[in-house]
């Protein structure tokens, strides 16, 4: 099951973190994987490490997204899977947030999702097949956290976009779903400091943080042929973080 041999998969923001975990799992499942990232150095290094391919991408630029998909179809003759994963999460309290903070977040997290999904549709519709997997978050759609109002709004917005987009693509053989990670031990999360990491572990029933590969396995399932009857849905991968009603439930 979940054999992606002969499938061409595009992972945006695939140079590190969750994107790298997704790319690694897809490669191991047999897919030809293209890592698309704005960080050329990290992207090339990741592609070499995983046995994948690297293409430059700025998801906030519609032309860049269109050019990327055209290059993938030109070089590999098909596009079967899009894992739209690129995202940023700089912390900023609401009282000090500027319009630029808000716009930068949404330009990458939400508008970038729109640009990449739209750019991929023609190639998928031509073959009557496609799997699109968005990387959303539990923060926004399910939970909240101080300092991430702009991030939370962008992640909740992705799911509203996904549900309507899934309806538009339902008869084209294209599914659109989302993975909603909890706290995953990436470079970005580690940058929050050890105290933050320990607080997060304490709030999770497993008392562990997830790994990028944990999200990769969930994305691989939604990207598989076996997931053909699932669209417009979300899969939370968080070690049970959203379950407890109170701190006592974790004892």
From TrEMBL:
Gene3D superfamilies found in the cross-reference section: NAD(P)-binding Rossmann-like Domain
SUPFAM superfamilies the UniProt entry points to: NAD(P)-binding Rossmann-fold domains (SSF51735)
Recorded superkingdom: Bacteria
Any Pfam family matching the protein: adh_short_C2
Family assignment from sequence similarity: Belongs to the short-chain dehydrogenases/reductases (SDR) family.
Protein name from the UniProt record: 3-oxoacyl-ACP reductase
